[in-house]
Amino acid sequence: MKSECEIYEMLRPFRLKWKNIGVSDLVCAVMLVEEKPERIHALHKEVYMVIAAERCCTWRAIETSVRRVLEEAWSHNRRHMETLVGYPLDSCPTAAEFIYICANYVPKRSAEDIK
Fold this sequence. Notes:
Elements: H1 4-11, H2 21-35, H3 43-55, H4 59-76, H5 78-85, H6 95-104, H7 111-114
Helix pairs in contact: 2-3, 2-4, 2-6, 3-4
GO molecular function: calcium ion binding; DNA binding; DNA-binding transcription factor activity; translation initiation factor activity
Domain Sporulation initiation factor Spo0A C-terminal: 17-105
Keywords: Initiation factor, Protein biosynthesis
């Protein structure tokens, strides 16, 4: 399982503003889905509502902040997003798709890492 630091490192090429609460919402969402992948099928109830309860806000606020961060990431570094996905993208993925992509991303290992 990826640590919080590893997820932030994966997101670094997007040049996101780390003070933006949406970035931490995205990281929490990725960690929850990575922990239990089936949560992606009940994203509002099992991810957004869990984060909202911790932050004392609505699940819609969490969803909105995650979508805004996603749009910012897409505009800053589309190429890195395609690297995470593994193929060219015609449009920005949905929030659910991006959370799932990040939760399941395994960096390609170099020959030196394998040794």
